[in-house]
Design goal:
By secondary structure, the protein is α/β, with parallel strands linked by helices. It contains 9 helices and 8 strands. The chain has a domain at 4-153 and 179-205 and 259-265: Rossmann fold (3-Layer(aba) Sandwich). It has helices spanning 13-27, 30-40, 60-66, 81-90, 129-139, 165-177, 183-193, 214-228, 234-249, and strands at residues 49-54, 71-78, 97-101, 114-120, 140-157, 197-198, 202-208, 255-265. The longest helix has 16 residues, at 234-249. The termini are far apart. Bound molecules: S-adenosylmethionine. Residues 5, 8, 23, 27, 54-57, 60-61, 77-80, 83, 103-105, 120-122, 125-126 line the site of S-adenosylmethionine.
């Protein structure tokens, strides 16, 4: 099964609801909030900055951006009307946040019309990320800021021993929900080749032990994907999910992935 995010307009509503919940669960993790505040804090927004988030999903990053000093207007773009409806529901009613359906590879905005563009966990999910970066560069003003952040999916792990059956779920999750697991490692070169001045990459960790939310969802999504394509039975998928819960219950759960952020500017 290809990355669901890469073909989001063809995903059934039930799966969209699962993913929308996961996006909000992830955004509520304190270490993720610190990471987001930290890298967005590196951007020197000019007064009344006009900011675009491409691939905004349910809007957690847009909501954070709207609360930041100097940010005047935030526009979130996503191909999924389902996610945008959720984003509108969760955002404060304010003329400062607006959501619009669209494709990051063909934005409808005028050239040089934004002070900052944010790509938060988008580039790992799109085939042909160069097109997204070209559009981000086009809509940025000269001197405008690009903020990129993504998971380094090749580091995703649930393994506490070798072999560990829960790692199979983690691997199936990455295979079915990510387009390029190595994107973070190519990000600096890619952004530089797209015509930006790039600052050094910064690294963060996400670890869940007690009350895992995001990384428990890797088990569910990975096990379901394996059952759906017939690799394992529905009974085994249910057993793997139960094992994840039992492991968390006895305090033995470990879910981890590294993230990285990058700040760049349009010359
Ligand atoms: C992993 S989600 C991230 C959502 C949000 N940025 C967040 O961090 O919660 C990736 C998002 O990219 C969107 N997406 C996929 N292809 C896209 C494209 N070509 N242009 C814009 N967004 C796209 C998906 O619909 C999805 O909402």
């Amino acid at each position: 099964m290809p990355d669901v995010f890469a073909n989001i307009t063809n995903v059934p509503p039930a799966m969209l609801d699962v993913v929308a919940n996961v996006l909000e669960t992830r955004a509520a993790i304190p270490s993720q909030q610190q990471m987001i505040a930290s890298y967005l804090g590196e951007i020197e927004f000019p007064k009344n900055a006009r900011v675009l988030e491409v691939g905004c999903g349910t809007g957690p990053i847009c909501r954070t951006l709207a609360s930041m000093p100097n940010v005047g207007e935030v526009i979130g773009v996503d191909p999924s009307e389902h996610f945008l409806a959720k984003a509108r529901e969760l955002s404060p009613k304010s003329a400062r946040i607006m959501y619009q359906q669209g494709d990051g590879k063909a934005l409808t905005f005028e050239s040089a019309s934004f002070d900052a563009v944010i790509l938060h966990t988008l580039l790992t999910h799109v085939p042909g990320p160069e097109a997204i970066l070209a559009e981000a560069r086009r809509v940025l003003k000269a001197g405008g800021w690009l903020g990129v952040c993504d998971g380094d999916f090749d580091t995703a792990t649930l393994r506490i021993a070798n072999p560990d059956p829960l790692q199979a779920c983690c691997d199936a999750f990455v295979d079915n929900f990510v387009t390029d697991r190595y994107m973070v490692r190519k990000m600096s070169a890619l952004v530089h080749a797209s015509g930006f001045e790039v600052q050094p990459l910064r690294s963060y960790g996400l670890v869940e032990t007690l009350s895992p939310g995001l990384t428990m969802s890797w088990i569910d999504r990975g096990a379901d994907a394996m059952a759906q394509c017939g690799t394992i039975s529905a009974t085994l998928a249910a057993a793997l999910k139960a094992e994840g819960r039992a492991r968390a219950e006895r305090g033995g759960f470990f879910g981890y992935m590294a993230y990285a952020s990058l700040i760049a500017r349009k010359p």
